[in-house]
Write a structure and sequence with these properties.
With 141 residues, the protein is mainly β. It has a single domain, classed as PCu(A)C copper chaperone (Immunoglobulin-like, Sandwich). The protein has one helix and ten strands. The protein has one helix spanning 2-20; strands at residues 26-32, 41-49, 55-62, 65-75, 81-86, 89-91, 95-99, 105-111, 120-127, 131-139. Strands 1, 2, 3, 4, 5, 6, 7, 8, 9 and 10 form a ten-stranded mixed beta sheet that branches. A hairpin with a 3-residue loop joins β9 (120-127) and β10 (131-139). The model has no long low-confidence stretch (mean pLDDT 90).
């Protein structure tokens, strides 16, 4: 009986540690358009979820903009293209989601300084399951 209690006690310590080491989201190729101070710009990247469970991006903020949102591109009833914010972005298990122009993307509003080719901008993505990520996006265009 004592041996069983020791094994169970060990499991109670080890199992939470293993759960914390679950694969986190991975981010690749982050970039954004150039923008003048006060303007709006788009940001793009690839998100990879190597884990066995979905994760959801629930918030985005940026050190170089007053406000940031996740957007999707839609076709309006008159046939023109438009954008609309989405509250959450689900990243399915073992999936890759691309944020790119004319598709899913990040919108940064009221850029606080002029951003030119080669500059960097810090963006924070908050996920339901794995916490907050800090990313450095490079201005490419």
């Amino acid at each position: 009986m004592k041996r069983l209690l020791v094994i169970l006690s060990g499991a109670l310590i080890v199992l939470p540690l293993l759960a914390q080491q679950a694969p986190r989201l991975q981010f690749r190729g982050g970039w954004m358009y150039s923008a003048d101070s006060g303007a709006v710009t788009g940001a793009f990247l690839t998100i990879v979820n190597p884990s066995n469970a979905p994760d959801t991006i629930v918030a985005v903020r940026s050190a170089c903009a007053e406000h940031a949102e996740i957007h999707t591109t839609i076709r309006n009833s008159d046939g023109t293209m438009g954008m609309r914010p989405i509250a959450e972005l689900v990243i399915p298990a073992h999936a890759t989601v691309q944020l790119r122009p004319r598709s899913l993307h990040l919108m940064l509003y009221h850029v606080q300084r002029t951003l030119r080719n080669g500059d960097r901008c810090t963006v924070f993505l908050e996920s339901k399951r794995s916490g907050t990520y800090q990313l450095e996006l490079v201005v490419r265009r």
